[in-house]
């Protein structure tokens, strides 16, 4: 029987790539939590720093600050990174806007 070394730990779990990044966590009861992932274990229990709960009603939303928050892994439905999604959307929007302004200036 062989033991996993430190280099194998990062290959065996996908949550390691999310450490110290801002995440959106969807829970089984429908709550949406946002915060920075500080720790996790093999059961997907997670610790979020600077967590807040996003409450959405119609087209409006508010964020309820929670602070340091421990999430039990069996309640997690989905985990996703926020920063890259927002960055790629803003990059796409700026690209589209610059293309639109540039094409208008040519005509």
TrEMBL record:
GO terms for biological process: deadenylation-dependent decapping of nuclear-transcribed mRNA; mRNA processing. GO terms for molecular function: mRNA binding. The chain crosses the membrane at residues 82-102. It is found in: Cytoplasm; Cytoplasm, P-body. Belongs to the snRNP Sm proteins family. Component of the heptameric LSM1-LSM7 complex that forms a seven-membered ring structure with a donut shape. This is U6 snRNA-associated Sm-like protein LSm1. It comes from Capsella rubella. The lineage of its organism: Eukaryota, Viridiplantae, Streptophyta, Embryophyta, Tracheophyta.
């Amino acid at each position: 029987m062989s033991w996993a070394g430190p280099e194998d730990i990062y290959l065996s779990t996908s949550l390691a790539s999310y450490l110290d990044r801002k995440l959106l966590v969807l829970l089984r009861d429908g709550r949406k939590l946002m915060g920075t992932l500080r720790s996790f274990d093999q059961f997907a229990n997670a610790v979020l720093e600077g967590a807040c709960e996003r409450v959405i009603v119609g087209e409006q939303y508010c964020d309820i600050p929670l602070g340091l928050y421990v999430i039990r892994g069996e309640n997690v439905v989905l985990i996703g990174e926020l920063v890259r999604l927002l960055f790629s959307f803003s990059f796409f929007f700026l690209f589209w806007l610059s293309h639109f302004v540039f094409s208008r200036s040519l005509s």
